Amino acid sequence: MYKRLHLSEEEHNRFIEDHPNGDLLQLTDWAASKKLTGWYFRRFAIADASSETRGAATLLFKKVPKLNATLCYISRGFVCDYHDHALVEAMLKEAVVIAKEEKAYAIKIDPDIPVSEYEDALENLKVLGFKHRGFHDGMSKHAIQPRQTMMADIDKDDAALLQSFERNNRTKVRSALKKGTEVYKASREDLPTFVDLMKETGERDGFLTRDITYFESMYDHLNPNGHMELFLVRLNPSKVEESVKSDLGKLDKETQKAEKKKDGSKKDNQLRNLQNRKAKLEGQLKEAQELKGEHPDGIILSGALLALSGHKAYYLYGASSNDYRDYLPNHHMQFAMMQYARDKGAKTYDFGGVSVMPEEDSPHFGLWQFKKVWGTEVSEKIGEFDFILRRPLYMAAEVGVPIFQKGKIRLNQLRKEKKDRT
């Protein structure tokens, strides 16, 4: 019923982009960018009796150190209709053939399909011999890709898009648009600026950051075909000065109007409030004028890598400066990237992994708070599956190595504790 089909790389990627279950991580552009970290890839496609393409997969392979074996990882694949069980079985058969040629000990998949709509697929994959690794939290270290991500529907005009945000976030976005920041599509030459921002963000938030070669590899492979863009946010002192002067003018008119009111506590309170606002604006004006003298061309406050694949957009990496955070550069940037992605044909905007409704003392609470205010909903994916080809090696790689690594970490901790006591 189904047969192997040879597609050009362009045809392969077009199928991935057009398919409802397609994903950025199944593009050959993405796979090629992984070469820097030791992966290589192969691909295949499946057609029905009429030679119509019905499924495709990009298979990543990585050699296991000191063993004559590889891991086969089909990230966010297969790309096919998972309700068609015969098709999924045909996809698996082709994957097994290639995986065995590459001496893989297992095939790992984590399809981009919602569990609520594909309960039959979950059971079918188990029947085919896949081992389901469980319904992990979106920030779990036990999964390669987050099972839970925050998705926003961006298939709407600007007014409706803004209205979809939570009320407080709408206010912040509207304010950010008037504060004098500019969001622009940057170039490869701007990657060092972005990496500097990433380092600053990592130091502030306590996480390790990637080397510039990682981002260069991603950009070089994904940008030429329109699958990735770098955005930066510049604080423009001249625009800030213009905006503040405009607000001061409006405030003077409000003050004149208030002064004509009858004397009383209400009038006094209003005038006091207006004076406080004026003092704050005058401080901002002074700051803008000083900034204009020091940085006449402006200063970069934020940056992000936005990825695109067909009807889906992905917020991959974001970074921001510790300075001038009151100008809300990230809010301006997110809204602008949503607009850009929509205008390029995207219908959804993926904010990435999240721990759903964590406790306030959770290290993931701040991330949840940020991602939930953009008109997002939780996308609960079906999870990660392993198809074991060489069980002894699988047990060694998936069970033995993690135990050894945990033991090594614990041993180092004990050594440090002993050293601290002496």
From TrEMBL:
Gene Ontology cellular component list: cytoplasm
Domain of life: Bacteria
Leader sequence residues: none
Keywords: Acyltransferase, Cell shape, Cell wall biogenesis/degradation, Peptidoglycan synthesis, Transferase
BP GO terms, sorted: cell wall organization; peptidoglycan biosynthetic process; regulation of cell shape
Reactions catalysed, as given in the entry: beta-D-GlcNAc-(1->4)-Mur2Ac(oyl-L-Ala-D-isoglutaminyl-L-Lys-D-Ala-D-Ala)-di-trans,octa-cis-undecaprenyl diphosphate + glycyl-tRNA(Gly) = beta-D-GlcNAc-(1->4)-Mur2Ac(oyl-L-Ala-D-isoglutaminyl-L-Lys-(N(6)-Gly)-D-Ala-D-Ala)-di-trans,octa-cis-undecaprenyl diphosphate + tRNA(Gly) + H(+)
Positions of region (Disordered): 244-274
Family: Belongs to the FemABX family.
Protein name: Lipid II:glycine glycyltransferase
Organism: Salinicoccus kekensis
